[in-house]
TrEMBL record:
Keyword match Lyase: no
InterPro entries: Phenazine_PhzF-like
Designated name of the protein: PhzF family phenazine biosynthesis protein
Keyword entries, A-Z: Isomerase
A Pfam family per the record: PhzC-PhzF
Organism: Streptomyces longisporoflavus
Amino acid sequence: MPTSHRIRIVDAFTDRPFTGNPAGVLLLDAFPDDAWLQNVAKEVNHAETAFAHRLPAGGDADWALRWFTPATEVDLCGHATLATAHVLQATGAAEGPVRFATRSGVLTTTAHPDGTVAMDFPTAPLTPAELPDGAAEALGAEPLAAYDTGANLGDLLVELADEKTVRALTPDHKALAHHSKRGIIATAPAEDPAGGYDFVSRCFFPRVGIDEDPVTGSAHTALAPFWSQRLGRAQLTGLQASPRSGLVRTELRGDRTLLTGRAVTVIEGDLYG
């Protein structure tokens, strides 16, 4: 009989099923070979699938964590980390702060009694950048400015004129794949500052197999310093205005950014293979 593994699909950065960003989560005894991990992520076919296993006590981290899109392994993923922390809390596998060993160093999550999970991530360094030839045409809008987000993300952050422009984007994903290492983060200030969020964004990652990511935690490590400097506040709320949509609370702490959100498990079952 084939080996079975417990798998969960968790919607992250939301408290309602069928919104936010879905992620597969598997808690394992150890990591199988990379080909198996990639095949599972391809089968799950969500933006990311997270794989985690417990580490020996006394080390720098409590769990090892890896993230795969349907096409490749990635260096940093916020929503699948949030989903994993949610599963650890919901199953009783871990309580309080959890330290994850990842390709981006040790990341700490803290589950709170109110159901929120806070994640301590490295702040992305922003460097003004020239927009590559053809990028504006591929995106479908002329940015006001563009910024490189550093090696950890590998994204191009572009500021657009207003929220309406961000929401109306219909990019040429095939063309967009040629203009950054991972993808494009498009952002603008909230049209209504009293609407419950301070800025909007949409994220396009066709180069790693994701045309549009529903809610991207890692992108907010770049959005947080960008908008905190513009708005003069360390604590902000971002709305990722994808069709599924989701909210990310950010708190800039120098070279670290605290990302906070909720999650809900929508599917639980056995994976055979």
